[in-house]
Amino acid sequence: MDGGRADADGIARPGARSGRLSRRSFLAGSAVGLGTLGLGACATSDGLLLAEAAQIYGPMPDERFPIPAADISKVNPKYYRRTVRYESKEAPGTIVVDPSNYYVYRIEGDGAATRYGANVGRDGFLWSGDAYVGRKSEWATWTPPKEMIRRQPEAAKYAKGMPGGLDNPLGARTLHLYQNGAYTLYTIYASSDPESIGSGITSGCVGLLSQDMIHLYARTPVKTKVVVLPA
Fold it and tell me: For the chain, what is the domain count?
């Protein structure tokens, strides 16, 4: 993502085996819900919060590529999925990205929203404005852009596309963001890197833990409005 635009749907993932491109190297190169706890989860004990989170972020063996449990010990509890009080003029269903605080909200109405912890664009790749979900993908093929291949020649082997799977930078689900009928190259995607949540490491894309992204994806139809707030 050069010149302030996303030059990739390339998001990185740590822990890849030697000789393989990892999600983290991609990022470095291009850059039952917790709503049951009540609004804000104010009265919830840490023990209950962790127990609920362990269930929410557990393994998903029925996926086409079975997803392991997220290591929630690497995620600040404030980024666990939950229902919170959130006043907004936006219609229910709207997605609001708050990059300054590393949150993504789905407006539920009546002053409430589902809140997810996120990773966001690093300095120089932040953007803001209104968009909409132009298309949705499950286990999408990822194709590195030419700009990324120039910076990272090792990505050239995927010039014709990397098939979906656990090592694919886009992960299990992707919401592709459009403006005025054109694909922006920005996405909201599924990350399997819990340590990335609450940080700015991408080239403008927004990542949620896989379990959170699958939750949001199922509730987000094409044409859903997306508001990205200024950082």
Answer: 1
